[in-house]
Specification:
By secondary structure, the protein is α/β, with parallel strands linked by helices. It has one domain (5-126): Rossmann fold. Helices cover 39% and strands 28% of the residues. Helix 3 (79-89) crosses helix 4. The longest helix is centred in the middle third of the chain and has 16 residues, at 51-66. It is globular. InterPro entries: Rossmann-like_a/b/a_fold. This is Universal stress protein family protein.
Amino acid sequence: MKNKKHVMVCVTQQKTCERLINIGVDYREKDLGDLYVVHVAPEGVNFLGNSREGEALDYLFEISKEVNADMTVLRSSNVVKTIIEFCQKNNIGRIILGESLETSPENSVIAKLSKAISKTVDITVIPT
């Protein structure tokens, strides 16, 4: 019997992240686990005050509900640490992220995550 592997999809406050959620659904079905959709908002940023960003997050919440995924918005000044803690707490076996435009490894969330947890969590980067 195949081990369950919970899937985490990291989203930003953009409606286009729906495609990442749909890819997460495909992996959830393969991995037989649960699907978590997570947005980490920087502390002190009022994303709900921006109508476009708030609307996009509402949209992603609705998409998440439609595909039976839990969506969580977390606040943190350390995005990588927060994602790692969420993975550990929820037994995440795969993270799905959109491709980043950041080219510097020192500033890249993907590079930092890969270095920190790629031995225990599969990281799937989806090109834009």
